[in-house]
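Q: Structure tokens for this one, please.
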Amino acid sequence: MRLLGDVPTGMGPALGPTFERRMATPGSGPAHTGMLIINADDWGRDVETTDHIFECVVRGSVSSASGMVFMEDSERAGAMAKERDVDVGLHLNFTTLFSAHILPTRLAKHQARTAHFLLGNRLSQVVYHPGLANSFEYLVKAQLEEFHRIYGEDARRVDGHHHMHLCANVLLAGLLPKGTIARRNFSFQPGEKSGVNRLYRKVIDDILSRRHRLADFFFNLLPIEPPERLGRIFTAATKSVVEVETHPINPEEHRFLTEGGIFRLAQYSPIALRYCIPIVGSRSG
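A: Here is the predicted structure, written as tokens:
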């Protein structure tokens, strides 16, 4: 077996105290302009999750969503996205059992194998398992094809449920479509994680950046308190492309996104209408 690094995940690159250090993708052209992207995960997982996310999209507090396929609400969620022009990328799923009413037996068996491996040990994500290479390849291909069937187009953006798109079996095999936007590791301020911890994440992000476009920084919406934390993150979006992950099914996050809290903190960094990585001098997303 090969190791993808030698330390556990949950690590991130250092983020300077002024939040102005740039993480540009090599060869990606001009520097990015600022952008605050609020992305909601698990679109299509079930009816309640989809509806909570859609409410946030309508209110303008969520820019985009990451959609799950082969789940109980995937079909309805896809129809909603096409009808209401919701920006959806693919949320690859190797760990939570597919819940669609009709599911190919082969698909379920391959996912059961990857879930057993990835959830069996906290270090499993950094270990390349050659015996599961075919399972990971099959699951990525099947989910990409299902996304195209449901949404009528290829996924231009890919991330992972439980962030497992960053596991060794996916990264080292280059399974994510080249040229797509991919989600980087969480970003941290100095002191939040050890130097080794941040170095590991930097290595992973460097591997990603060779084939994909990345946001400059990536954070979780939680914790919402103290508000100074999110204030600093949102301020960073005036000069850098910042993605903030949210799960509106969480009551605290849902209240913050639907009752105006986010707009008070993001008044100087308007929330993007879609997930895009703009280039200086270009109007295209």
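A few notes: The longest strand covers residues 35-43. The chain has one domain: 2-265.
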